[in-house]
């Protein structure tokens, strides 16, 4: 079946550091899946951070970005200059087209 694999979940970072969380996916569908990043801040519910429908497209939100790379089947989340308030749990997810 379809799956995603990410290297980290809970991320604690120092001010002005660089954040990168690796996410790779496997999809059995012929069509490319829609890829998502969710974030959960301490004491809060899950929130959608960004989503991308099309291979080669870059999604961005709140200073975070992720590029849908079909060659490497990856959707890595990055932020160049993180703040202490970005400390949270991050989740990569996919939904396959039927």
From TrEMBL:
This is Ig-like domain-containing protein. It comes from Rattus norvegicus (Rat). SUPFAM superfamilies: Immunoglobulin. Residues 1-98 form the Ig-like domain. Signal peptide: none annotated. Keywords: Adaptive immunity, Immunity, Immunoglobulin domain, Receptor, Signal, T cell receptor.
